[in-house]
Design a protein that fits this description.
Structural class: alpha/beta
Shape: globular
Number of helices: 13
Helix content: 10-25%
Number of strands: 21
Strand order of the largest sheet: 13-12-16-17-18-20
Largest sheet: 6 strands, mixed
Radius of gyration: 24 Å
Distance between the termini: 31 Å
C-alpha cells in the first residue's frame, strides 16, 4: 500500500481533524481484519458447477465467473465474481448428458444418475483440488437438472395426494437436486430398497443451519466427512423427518457439515444474466421499498403454536419457527429503521384483499405501486380467491428493486425450469418473478407440504436487515434438507441500505464513518428512529461498513454506485 497522498483528498497538507481521521483509519483496519474470520460468505468459498455440453450452462458460468475461469465461451467476459472456483462436468469422461453436444435441457433425473453424474464428480473434484473444506457454497447453472424422481414411484412428487401417502409410508425419496446436494458427503440413498426409512433419502432431514444468524463460514468443517448419527423425529413415523442424534461431535450433523446450494436459473439465458446484474447492486431504501406479506386467511396476530391452522405457522418443532408472516412484519416494525407504511401485510381472504402490482390490471385487489423488495404471498392458496388471472400472474405485476426476493407458499413455484411448465395447478413461478425483474427466490420443485416452506423471518433478519449474503439467508430460512426447495440467484448478493450512505456517494464504506465523525452532533441521522442519536446508531452504520469493506477487499462487491 502506498504511503503517498490519497487521491480522494487531493491534498497532502495537514487538515483539521487529520489526526483523528488517521486514528479512525487505524481502528477500522483492525476492526475489519478482526472480523474476517466471521465475515459473510466470500467468493473464494464458492464453486460454480456447469456443463459445457448443455445449452446455456457454459454461457452463464462464463458470465458469472469470467472467461479466465470458464474456457470455451466468448473469451471476453471479465466475470461478475471472478474469484470463485469453477468445475466443468464435461471434464469427467463418465458423465454424458447426451450423445452429441450441445445437449438439451434436462429437468428431472434418477438418484442413480444424480450420484454417478453429479454428486460423485463434484466430490472427486473437491477432494482432488483440496477444496472440500474450503468451499462452502456450490452454485449450479441453468441447464443442470433440478429434480430427482422418487426411487419407486417416479411421478409421485407432482401429485399432492399420492405424495402425502408416500411420505406417510416413510418412503418419499423425490427431492430437488439442490437440496440433496447440500449434504454432499452423506450417502443418503445407501440401503434404499423401497421400505420405510431404509435410507436417509426417505423423507426430509432437519436443517442444522435453520434459524441461525451467524456467518456460514464461521462453522467448522473438520467433521464433514464423518458418519452422522441420525434418528427419526419423535412423534412421527419411520422415514418421515430425520434429525441428528448427538452422541459425539463428529457424529453430529452441524452447519459446517453441509453446503449452501444456489442455482443461477430462469426461463432464458438473458433473463438469468439480467438477474445476476441486479444482484451486484442491491440498495434498500427503508422508507420507500415495500415488503409484502399477503397471508390471505390468517388472523393477523402472532400465535405461539400451530393451532391456528395457518400455512405460515404449521408443523412440529424444530421445523416450525412460528407465525411467519406476522413475525416478519413485526421484525420489520421493531427494527426502527423501517418506515411502517412500507410494510404491506394483509390477512383478509377474498379477491378484494389479494395484493397485486400496478403493471397488470386484474380488475381488483390491493394495488401496491411502490418498488417491491420482498414478495411473500399465498398465491393460489389465498383463501377466498383472487381477482382475474392474478392467482398465477401476481408476481409479474410489480415494480422490483435490485435484489428483490420472492418466497410464496405454493407447492410447485420452482417447477418451471429446464423446459418444464408450471404444472396442473398453474401456480406462480420463481422463473416468472426473475423474468419480471426479480433477482432472488425460494422455490419448491415438487409438493413440499406446508411444514417445510421457507421462513420469511430469517430472510428479513439476515439478508434485508442483517449482513449475511443471499446464500446464507436463504438456507437459514429452510427448515429441512434433502427435500423440495431450491434457492435461486447469486449467493453472494448482499444488501446496502440507502440511509447509511451518509455522504451520498453511492457506496456505504469507510467514508460514511468519516462523515459521521465530521458531522455536527445535531446533523447525525437517527438510523434506528428511536428518537435519540447515540452509539446504537453508529454501531448500525459500522456493521454495514465493515461488511461492505471486507467484500470489496475479497472481490465480492461490484463497487458500482446506485442510481
Amino acid at each position: 500500500m502506498s504511503s503517498g497522498c490519497s487521491d480522494k483528498t487531493l491534498d497532502c497538507r495537514p487538515q483539521r481533524g487529520a489526526r483523528s481521521r488517521l486514528a479512525l483509519i487505524a481502528a477500522l483496519v483492525v476492526a475489519v481484519f478482526a472480523s474476517a474470520a466471521n465475515a459473510q460468505l466470500q467468493p473464494h468459498e464458492v464453486l460454480v458447477v456447469y456443463d459445457s455440453r448443455i445449452s446455456g450452462s457454459l454461457e452463464i458460468a462464463e458470465y458469472y465467473a469470467g472467461s479466465a475461469k470458464v474456457p470455451g465461451g466468448t473469451g471476453t467476459e471479465p466475470g461478475l465474481r471472478p474469484l470463485v472456483h469453477t468445475f466443468d462436468l464435461a471434464s469427467v469422461p463418465t458423465t454424458a448428458p447426451c450423445a452429441t453436444p450441445p445437449c438439451a435441457l434436462v429437468s428431472t433425473i434418477s438418484h442413480a444418475t444424480f450420484i454417478a453424474d453429479y454428486r460423485d464428480p463434484i466430490r472427486n473434484h473437491l477432494q482432488t483440488n483440496n477444496l472440500q473444506r474450503a468451499v462452502r457454497c456450490i452454485v449450479l447453472t441453468r441447464g443442470l437438472p433440478h429434480r430427482l424422481t422418487d426411487t419407486d414411484n417416479s411421478g409421485v412428487g407432482d401429485n399432492p395426494s399420492q405424495a402425502l401417502a408416500e411420505l406417510n409410508a416413510g418412503d418419499a425419496t423425490y427431492a430437488s437436486v439442490d437440496s440433496e446436494l447440500s449434504l454432499l458427503w452423506m450417502n443418503l440413498s445407501a440401503g434404499e430398497m423401497g421400505g420405510a426409512g431404509d435410507s436417509l433419502s426417505d423423507g426430509m432431514i432437519v436443517n442444522p443451519y435453520h434459524k441461525l444468524a451467524a456467518p456460514f463460514n464461521g462453522y467448522r468443517t473438520v467433521h464433514q466427512m464423518d458418519t452422522k448419527n441420525m434418528g427419526n423425529l419423535p412423534g412421527f413415523g419411520t422415514g418421515l423427518i430425520w434429525r441428528t442424534q448427538p452422541t459425539s461431535i463428529p457424529a453430529t450433523l452441524a452447519p459446517g457439515d453441509m453446503y449452501l446450494i444456489c442455482r443461477l436459473d430462469g426461463t432464458t439465458v438473458a433473463q438469468v444474466k439480467a438477474s445476476l446484474d441486479r444482484a451486484q447492486d442491491v440498495w434498500l431504501d427503508l422508507g420507500a421499498h415495500a415488503f409484502i406479506f399477503d397471508e390471505g386467511g390468517g388472523d393477523g396476530t402472532q400465535n405461539v403454536s400451530d393451532s391456528d391452522s395457518e400455512f405460515d405457522n404449521d408443523g412440529p418443532f424444530p421445523l416450525n419457527a412460528g407465525d411467519d408472516y406476522e413475525q416478519s412484519r413485526d421484525e420489520l416494525l421493531a427494527d426502527g429503521r423501517v418506515i411502517p407504511s412500507i410494510i404491506r401485510y394483509d390477512h383478509l381472504p377474498g379477491p378484494s384483499s389479494f395484493i397485486v402490482g400496478p403493471l397488470i390490471n386484474f380488475g381488483g385487489g390491493i394495488v401496491v405501486s411502490d418498488p417491491v423488495a420482498h414478495l411473500a404471498s399465498l398465491g393460489r392458496n389465498h383463501n377466498g380467491g383472487w381477482p382475474g388471472n392474478s392467482g398465477f400472474q401476481y408476481a409479474e405485476s410489480f415494480n422490483y428493486i435490485n435484489g428483490a426476493v420472492f418466497n410464496s407458499i405454493e407447492s410447485f413455484n420452482g417447477r418451471a425450469l429446464n423446459g418444464l411448465n408450471a404444472g396442473p395447478t398453474g401456480q406462480e413461478q420463481v422463473a416468472d418473478f426473475i423474468a419480471s425483474g426479480g433477482t432472488l427466490g425460494i422455490g419448491n420443485v415438487y409438493e413440499p407440504f406446508s411444514i417445510t416452506v421457507a421462513d420469511n423471518l430469517f430472510i428479513v433478519r439476515n439478508y434485508w436487515l442483517g449482513g449475511l449474503t443471499w446464500g446464507e439467508a436463504a438456507y437459514s430460512s429452510l427448515p429441512v434438507l434433502s427435500w423440495q426447495q431450491i434457492a435461486v440467484g447469486d449467493p453472494l448478493a448482499r444488501v446496502s441500505r440507502l440511509q447509511e450512505d451518509l455522504n451520498g456517494d453511492g457506496v456505504v464504506d469507510v467514508e460514511d464513518l468519516y462523515a459521521w465523525h465530521e458531522m455536527n452532533a445535531g446533523d447525525r441521522p437517527d438510523l434506528n428512529r428511536d428518537g435519540v442519536v447515540n452509539d446504537a446508531d453508529y454501531r448500525l452504520l459500522e456493521t454495514s461498513v465493515r461488511g461492505f469493506e471486507l467484500n470489496l477487499m475479497n472481490g465480492t462487491g461490484s463497487g458500482r454506485k446506485h442510481q
